[in-house]
Specification:
heterodimer, A: alpha+beta, Pnp Oxidase, Chain A, UbiD C-terminal domain-like, 9-stranded antiparallel sheet, 5-stranded mixed sheet, globular, B: mainly beta, 1 helix, 4 strands, binds zinc ion
Chain lengths: ~500, ~80
């Protein structure tokens, strides 16, 4: 990666400059009608689930929702849906509400590739997260308004935390610090299980700690800077820092302090739960409603003991609804799943125009490409299957021409209807595939599907002579569409 | 009261937390030490009524070998 800093628009710089933590972001969202406080008293179950699912139906403009009247949890606050719509993401990137997904994609893709860490250090005694400290009598149920996310989950989950850990064989190495998103099931007042995919950094660290009989300490950060929540899920190399990456993508410094157990943590997090692995102990975990929209089953999962908790005064518990799509999970990770695939494809194929891997973490992807000759798009598809994310996730791939916006499904369907021949469909059997695909015959293995919905090119002798209607396009039409929306709104208000 | 997921008897259950408002008990959260299920007694029946659960959503702590290991323990002398 090069060391240049990404140039941000003045609007993006202004937003980056004012957001230091989740509270700043909720204020920004509220100013634009994108964060509301639920007016009524709710039961933890099933009311929160119902409200959040209803809000999540609107992927473009659904708001974040703060609950501060939860029965049995007086004085506690919960927020769900913080990254629940593309308008919320747009505001974070300094774009107006209603910005098209394609425009957001190019904004993120444009920020990709710089790796100059922007990190400000804050002494622990000045860090807001350490305003309150609990070291004895820890009870997670007293600290957080925990609730059941989906009706048949095996327990109460902390589902939107960023977890920091160090290489147990090299615990002083900052660069070998890992920040990831793992699901956490509360297993008692000071116990939790943490599920990690065996190939991921965290699982590797658990294995090392148990083999060497050394401690593995973690810090669970809750209620985080919105960029951290978005970018901690983006795969970076083992020796790169997710903090550096998040700050670079945001274009403003991330404020770090030290947790009581020696990890670097966000100084402005709402809460940091410090814990250590109980080596070789396992506990039943699950089911949990996961992102493909199905429950994962019960497993024996590594168990951790909470050693201390730091939190801001009146902390806000940030949670997420995950389940059958569309949900906040899709908005949270969709664009930063798409951007790296795009960047990696561009290195070999500058003809690639855009990548839409929004659906179920990229189980279905749509790639638009300037087709150079017959079959070219299929070669690009093969390269996409070989990208780090494509390797395990890109199950279904639809290739479209550069005149099709892959984020506009009406246009994609047009391409499928008019440019697809059944002989342009490729099935590659028995490929590696992410374990979580509910359609897999054997978990971890599956077939790949490539649908070439690009137009016919020479030397293909037939089909290339379709004379396309050329409706007017471009920024003038985009502006007119926005103007029409404004006129409609005015007409409605009259 | 038995566990809504594995029907373990009361002696295997632990009270985790009581939700109170001005002294009034609103709900209680329980944990099953045998199958790790956590529930609140105020939840809808679909979550806490054993009779309404499909087999797949029940648990069988008498046969822990039925459940996969996420990461097998490096050493097996640790308690489970
Ligand atoms: Zn049980």
């Amino acid at each position: 990666m090069d060391m240049e800093t990404v140039t941000l628009s003045p609007e993006a710089r202004a937003v980056a400059g004012r957001i230091h933590n989740i509270r700043d972001y909720l204020d920004l969202l509220a100013e634009h009608g994108q964060c509301i406080t639920w007016p009524d008293t709710v039961m933890p179950e099933p009311d929160i689930r119902k409200v959040v699912v209803a809000a999540g139906r609107d992927a473009m403009t659904g708001p974040a929702i703060v609950f501060d009247k939860i029965r049995g949890y007086p004085g506690k606050r919960l927020v769900v849906g913080v990254h629940g719509s593309f308008s919320n993401i747009a505001l974070l990137l300094g774009k107006p509400k209603g910005t098209s997904i394609k425009e957001l994609f190019y904004e993120l893709a444009g920020r990709w590739g710089s790796d100059t860490p922007l990190i400000n250090r804050v002494e622990p005694e000045h860090a807001p997260v350490h305003e309150n400290r609990v070291e004895a009598g820890i009870n997670l149920y007293d600290l957080l308004p925990l609730y059941r996310i989906n009706a048949l989950d095996g327990g109460f989950y902390i589902a939107k935390a960023n977890i920091v850990s160090r290489d147990p064989r090299d615990p002083d190495n900052f660069a070998k610090q890992n920040v990831g998103i793992y699901r956490i099931q509360v297993q008692g007042p000071d116990r939790f299980t943490l599920l990690s995919v065996p190939s991921h950094d965290m699982a590797q660290q658990i294995l090392m700690a148990e083999q060497d009989d050394v401690p593995l300490k973690v810090a669970v950060m809750l209620g985080n800077h919105p960029a951290m929540a978005m970018f901690a899920a983006t795969p970076v190399n083992y020796d790169e820092s997710e903090f550096a990456y998040a700050s670079q993508m945001m274009g403003s410094p991330i404020e770090l302090t030290r947790s009581g157990n020696g990890m670097d943590v966000l100084a402005g997090a709402e809460m940091v739960i410090e814990a250590e692995l109980l080596n070789n102990q396992r506990c039943l975990e699950g089911p949990f409603g996961e992102f493909p929209g199905s429950y994962s089953g019960i497993r024996h999962v590594p168990l951790f003991r909470v050693t201390a908790v730091s939190h801001r005064t009146d902390p806000i518990f940030e949670s997420i609804y995950i389940g059958k799509g569309w949900t906040e999970h899709d908005t949270l990770i969709g664009l930063n799943t798409s951007a790296p695939i795009y960047a990696q494809l561009k290195e070999n194929f500058p003809e690639v125009v855009a990548v839409n891997a929004l659906y179920q973490h990229g189980l279905t992807g749509i790639i638009s490409v300037k087709n150079r000759f017959a079959g070219f798009a299929k070669s690009v598809a093969m390269r996409a299957l070989g990208t780090p994310h494509g390797l395990m996730y890109l199950k279904n791939l639809i290739m479209v021409d550069d005149d099709v916006d892959p984020f506009d499904l009406n246009q994609v369907m047009w391409a499928l209807s008019t440019r697809t021949r059944a002989s342009d469909i490729i099935v590659i059997p028995n490929m590696p595939l992410v374990l979580i695909d509910p359609a897999a015959e054997i978990p971890g293995k599956g077939h790949r599907l490539v649908i070439d919905a690009t137009s016919f090119m020479p030397p293909d002798p037939i089909g290339g002579d379709a004379k396309l209607v050329a409706p007017p396009t471009g920024s003038e039409i985009d502006d007119l569409a926005k103007y029409i929306l404004r006129l409609q709104k005015e007409a409605e208000n009259r | 009261m038995n566990c809504p997921r594995c029907q373990s008897a009361e002696e295997h259950l632990r009270t985790e937390c009581e939700g109170r408002e001005g002294g009034e008990l609103v709900w209680t959260v329980f944990y099953c030490r045998r199958c790790s299920f956590t529930w609140r007694d105020s939840e809808p029946a679909e979550s806490i009524d054993y009779g309404l659960r499909e087999d797949w959503f029940r648990a069988d702590p008498d046969h822990p070998e039925k459940y996969e290991q996420n990461i097998p323990p490096a050493k097996t002398d640790g308690a489970d």
